[in-house]
Amino acid sequence: MKEEGNLLINIETSSKTYPVFIGENSLQALTDHLENADYTKILIITDFTVGRLHLDELRTCLSRIMDYCIFKVPASEQAKQFSVYEEALTFALENDLDRKSCIIAFGGGAVGDLAGFVAATFMRGIRFIQVPTTILAHDSAVGGKTGINHPLGKNMVGAFHQPEGVYYFTDLLETLPLSEIRSGFAEVVKHAFIADQEFLDFLMESITDLTKISRTDLNYILKKGIEIKANIVHQDERENGLRAVLNLGHTLGHALETNAGYGTVTHGEAIMTGLVYALYLSEAETDLVMDIHRFEQWLVTLGYRLEIPAQFDFDKAITSMKRDKKSFANKPRFILLEEIGKPVVKEIGEEQLRSTYEKFIIATQLQGETKKAD
Ligand SMILES: NC(=O)c1ccc[n+]([C@@H]2O[C@H](COP(=O)([O-])OP(=O)(O)OC[C@H]3O[C@@H](n4cnc5c(N)ncnc54)[C@H](O)[C@@H]3O)[C@@H](O)[C@H]2O)c1
Ligand SMILES: O=C(O)C(=O)C[C@@H](O)[C@H](O)[C@H](O)COP(=O)(O)O
Ligand SMILES: [Zn+2]
């Protein structure tokens, strides 16, 4: 469906305007950018997996005269630890980066969040570039949220720091394992719920097998997701209000990630579970009218496991949700939907959280059992 080739979106925020290139010519666009910039040195931060698979492609963008060094971090959430953050800063100092140096985040959201935070804080802030390599990173590479995890909460330490540009060479996505396609697709679905019923209808009708998304559809859905996010970030860069809607599914989702142990579930799977829970809360609190059962069936077809692990402790989740960045005075606030495309932020009492959780557990267990019986 729709456009091919190189797509360009401009992200306009109060602090910076920058381009997002998507598609075949993105690496050429990155080369052009690097050749015309005044960077004294480039630090590439990547993880061991992406480094092994794709570093050679990135190297083609760096001319022979360009001075660069590479710091490799453990894959996934292991990258977003204090110890890795400190090691990255040490590496930058030992390799003589200065205030005119630039960091390239080459990887998925975990690498992007870490590298962005290193850039935001090294010598009080240097420039950085996002070169995303996952579907999920259509979300994480845009908008300037950077940070690392604390054992007591996801992304609890961080900064808003916008990149100089986002160069999304989607050929690199071909090596993604199914679990990571599924994780990234969850944020696409989230964007559709927040802003666009038609887009959600398109996804539910056209995507029935995550291993068979055509290149044209992929470029289309990445572009669409980025446009939805760009529109929100344009209005509220630092989450003073509206931007919180991008957190649909994240209140329970982040609690799941924190309590299961970072990296035990993928970010996207946790967020999809949180999103379904938010739909049940919406039914109860905002009179959302929607066929949640049909949506759940579609998710099960795509391989999402909505059942909560038996060892998950909802009391601990409530503690985490009270500590969430959207909470004030220890009261959990959720992104709910009045309609698809019409999100609201609402404080939810503990009694409602618990009774909806019971309902949600029963419904999702039933979905899981039906799947096993098939
Ligand atoms: N800053 C934001 O606005 C924002 C938005 C959404 C999510 N996030 C964060 O992003 C993180 C999740 O992002 P992610 O899933 O992209 O993270 P990730 O960087 O952990 O990548 C996921 C896995 O895929 C592997 N991988 C990456 N690219 C690959 C490729 N092309 N081929 C094969 N394997 C590849 C990685 O090595 C890793 O094991 C979470 O920490 C989440 O909190 C941030
Ligand atoms: O960009 C945003 O704003 C988002 O909320 C996007 C989320 O998908 C992302 O996971 C983000 O890192 C969550 O932000 P946080 O402030 O809850 O840590
Ligand atoms: Zn997210």
Structure description:
- 47% of the residues lie in helices and 18% in strands.
- The chain has 374 residues and is α/β, with parallel strands linked by helices.
- It has 2 domains: 8-175, 3-Layer(aba) Sandwich (Rossmann fold), CATH 3.40.50; 178-372, Dehydroquinate synthase-like, alpha domain, CATH 1.20.1090.10.
- The strands form 4 sheets. The protein has a 4-stranded parallel β-sheet with strand order 4-3-5-6, with helices on both faces.
- A hairpin with a 2-residue loop joins strand 10 and strand 11.
- The model is unreliable at 1-5 (pLDDT under 50).
- Bound molecules: nicotinamide-adenine-dinucleotide (NAD), ligand LNCXM5UN and zinc ion.
- The ligand O=C(O)C(=O)C[C@@H](O)[C@H](O)[C@H](O)COP(=O)(O)O binds next to strand 8.
